[in-house]
Design a protein that fits this description.
- The complex is a heterodimer.
- Chain A has two domains: 315 residues, SGNH hydrolase (Rossmann fold, 3-Layer(aba) Sandwich), CATH 3.40.50; 76 residues, no CATH class.
- In chain A, a hairpin with a 5-residue loop joins β2 and β3.
- In chain A, α7 packs antiparallel against α10.
- In chain A, 30% of the residues lie in helices and 15% in strands.
- By secondary structure, chain A is α/β, with parallel strands linked by helices.
- Helix content of chain B is 0%, strand content 65%.
- Chain B is elongated and about 75 Å long.
- The two termini of chain B are 33 Å apart.
- The chains are: A alpha/beta, B mainly beta.
- Chains A and B meet through α1 and β2 of A and β1, β6, β18 and β19 of B.
């Protein structure tokens, strides 16, 4: 019996061990000198959580503002509502999905077309067709990101009739909308903190269309509107964080289909081919025209270029010639952001970013320098928690299947960069998000 | 039982290892005619090993989920008494090791779940040992020991990779791997003091040659552009351990024991990994010995080790945060004399 009692102590001791774990005592999160009780997010598709060429529920749930808001909870952050698509219409606008790989390793994608939230289409005279989505009816919300919006459009009252993503957040149905985006974000919201990442589309629209389908927003207009916006957002004493416009050449949309790769593919079939021909801008001025020339590695082919067009016989002033392989049938302007267009775009982006940083400095706002951050990722990659990330298409882990917008993991990384900027400026200690909780590209 | 906690840099989160017990064990036996100058001994024990299980949902899952490493040394030794005061011994070491390691692969399937790698195998290694025992007086003994490095090679271990179907071709699975672990040499000096009949005091110092552990490499049999051989620098440093212990014989059949020690860390800054969140450590022990019957002794003991917390950013993985660990080792032993 005596020995048995001894054993009892031993067994009890072993059981107790389960309870005593080592503990660390990290610092208590603090809000510093900012107030996160009502946070609103102003911006475009990146802010809305757009990914894989569409806006859909999973992307919305992993938007960077929603990640920031979740992390703000421990420092006095309030509820953060988003205009989410409903579960039965979770695929929203539809989006791209990876379905496999071709034998040469290039990816195959398909568009998801089930469970969409599309309610119809209207034709706006002088503008074109606008897809309309089911209205969001869940009351007030904090994520005000509108895919496609440019800074240049924020004071344009009828804009709510031209953008279906904006229209679904407004009360009236198109074409009866008259509330500008500026009024929409600043009127009656009583926010204490904001994030603003507008301006990308003022350059990106031009760039993704190969310089053919859109125009760059005038630098002076950008400056004037940016200051109007920041003055409005800070008018009632709210603090905030703003982000710069990324370098267009930092995204895989312009770096995946390269001149050398396409040329190598052609030469495999036809070794005599010396060069690809493009229709390129003749100088880096806004008014410079276009002329055919041989492509160089400084010319950026867009991700959506159908490479199968190369070499197909097309009619030209010189008779039938192979597409893309002679100056008589160069690759069309919309598929290439040529060197001069790159230079022009860069010049505008640099100007926009000077405006953004100057405005932020004047108001003491935090700045996430997305331009510097993404260029650094492009140059050096990023290693975090054993995950190797870079700006490569699909394999890089940061960019989604459209080559411009981010994966949930990419958005979490960006959210952490915003948080670092906020913490540095406002002496707060919002905890960082765990990026391993957010996925990269889904493989079938 | 090894219990660790991790606080990722810039967060307020804490992640704990699961409660899992890795029982170390030792068996010693000595045989020989009573009057003879020689004796043979056999030691079977687990000098290295550990079980660390962080689970599959912690922020370091792509660096390590679970490591279960066991090394069992079989050590036959022959000793010879040269004079009444001086004995020497030498022997052979055979090591059987097994390793089971899992970690996440950051590739997500269509349901958004990430992949996993599991590496499993066993191997062997050889070494030797030698010792000198000197009885300076009836109140003082001195001993020197050396155990050589035991280079253990795991050949044709199994590697399994769970990844999305469309990229399985990049991760041939099942696959085989070869890896080598240099289990370090140990040099020790120990003193025994016998001030009175009831007291025994022991001091010992060890120098463990961890600087042989330069890197952990896995050589896969089937490589692809994605699945390359890995080479993780470890750059461990030699460690020094200092220990002291005392025994008080309260009654002829009851001994009370206590002790403590300090060990320096082997992993340099920048090379601390979650599988082995190494740090300098202090520990204390308590023990009790009781004679149950004429030939049979029972000993129970308890050891508590406290590893100092370390705030680290691993150079290879950039996993950044603070580790802290405690180790609890309850012990029970039976000794039979014949």
């Amino acid at each position: 019996m005596k020995t048995f009692r001894k054993h009892i102590y031993l067994i009890a001791g072993l059981l107790l061990l389960g309870a005593c774990k080592p503990e660390l005592h990290p610092v208590t999160p603090s809000k510093g000198n900012a107030d996160f009780s009502k946070y609103i997010a102003v911006g475009n598709s990146l802010t809305a959580g757009y990914a894989d060429g569409g806006l859909y529920l999973e992307g919305q749930q992993n938007s960077y503002p929603s990640i920031i808001a979740k992390q703000m909870l421990s420092v006095g952050g309030g509820e953060f509502k988003q205009p989410l698509f409903s579960a039965d219409q979770a695929n929203g606008s539809g989006y791209l999905q990876l379905t496999g790989f071709n034998t040469d390793g290039t990816p195959k994608t398909a568009t998801v077309t089930s469970n969409l939230a599309i309610r119809g289409q209207i034709t706006v005279p002088g503008f074109g067709n606008v897809t309309l989505y089911n209205k969001y009816t869940g009351g007030e919300f904090n994520n005000l990101g509108v895919p496609g919006i440019k800074l240049q459009q924020i004071t344009y009252a009828p804009y709510g009739n031209l953008n279906g993503f904006y229209e679904r957040m407004l009360g009236p149905a198109a074409p009866a909308n008259t509330e500008s985006y500026l009024d929409f974000v600043t009127t009656g919201r009583n926010f204490t903190f904001f994030s603003n990442w507008l301006g990308n589309n003022d350059a990106l629209g031009y760039a993704t269309s190969g310089g053919a389908g859109d125009v760059l927003t005038d630098k002076a207009v950008f400056e004037q509107l940016y200051n109007v916006l920041i003055n409005s957002l800070t008018a009632t004493g709210a603090k905030g964080v703003v982000a710069t416009v990324p370098d267009v050449t930092a995204v895989p949309y312009f770096n995946t289909v390269t001149v050398s790769a396409v040329l190598a593919g052609v030469q495999k079939v036809n070794p005599a081919v010396q060069a690809l021909y493009i229709n390129a801008k003749t100088g880096s001025g806004l008014s410079d025209g276009y002329a055919p020339r041989a492509a160089t590695t400084s010319d950026l082919i867009v991700l959506t270029f159908p490479t199968s067009k190369i070499g197909q016989i097309v009619d030209s002033p010189a008779g039938p010639v192979p597409y893309g392989l002679t100056p008589y049938a160069p690759i069309e302007n919309q598929y290439v952001l040529d060197q001069n267009e790159v230079t022009l775009t860069e010049d505008y982006i640099n100007s926009y970013n000077t405006t953004i940083k100057t405005a932020a400095a004047a108001k003491g706002l935090a700045v996430f320098d997305a331009y510097a951050f993404l260029n650094n990722v492009k140059a050096h990659g990023l290693l975090m928690n054993g995950i190797s990330l870079n700006s490569g298409y699909i394999s890089g882990g940061i960019f989604s299947l459209d080559g411009v917008h981010l994966t949930p993991r990419g958005y979490a990384i960006v959210a952490n960069e915003f948080i670092k900027a906020i913490n540095a400026t406002y002496k707060s200690s919002i905890p960082l998000a765990d990026i391993t909780n957010y996925r990269a590209v889904k493989f079938p | 039982m090894f219990k660790s906690v991790f606080n990722p840099a810039g967060t307020n989160e804490q992640y704990h290892t699961a409660n899992k017990v890795a029982p170390p064990f030792t068996f010693y036996g000595a045989w020989g005619p009573k009057a003879a100058k020689w004796k043979v001994g056999l030691g079977v024990y687990t000098p290295f090993g550990g079980l660390t299980d962080w689970g599959t949902t912690w922020p370091g899952k792509y660096t390590a989920e679970m490591l279960n490493l066991k090394a069992i040394f079989f050590q036959p030794t022959l000793s010879y008494r040269l004079t009444d005061r001086l004995s020497i011994g030498a022997g052979f070491v055979y090591n059987h090791s097994s390793v089971d390691l899992t970690r996440g692969i950051p590739l997500d399937n269509s349901s958004g779940q990430s992949g996993q790698a599991e590496i499993k195998g066993s191997g062997k290694g050889y070494g030797w040992n030698a010792g000198i025992y000197f009885k300076a007086s009836s109140k003082l003994t001195i001993g020197f020991t050396h155990r050589s490095e035991v280079k253990t090679t795991i050949k044709d271990g199994d590697a399994f990779f769970t990844v999305p179907t469309s990229i399985q071709g990049n991760f041939p699975s099942p696959n085989q791997f070869t890896a080598s672990i240099p289990l370090p040499a140990t040099n020790g000096i120990g003193f025994g003091f016998y001030p009175t009949k009831q007291w025994t005091i022991a001091l010992d110092a060890n120098l463990v040659g961890w600087n042989s552990f330069k890197a952990l490499s896995f050589d896969y049999k089937n490589n692809t552009a994605t699945l390359k051989d890995t080479h993780s620098p470890r750059n461990y440093k030699n460690t020094v351990s200092l220990r002291a212990g005392a025994q008080y014989k309260a009654k002829p059949d009851l001994a009370l024991r206590f002790g403590g020690g300090y060990v320096t860390a082997a992993a340099p800054d920048g090379y601390v990994t979650p599988e082995v969140p190494d740090a300098s450590r202090v520990y204390g022990t308590l023990g009790l010995g009781y004679t149950l019957a004429k030939h049979l002794d029972i000993d129970v003991s308890f050891e508590y080790e406290h590893l100092n917390s370390r705030t680290q950013t691993n150079i290879e993985t950039q996993l950044s945060g603070t580790f802290k660990s405690n180790v609890y080792i309850p012990g029970i032993s039976l000794a039979y004399h014949w």
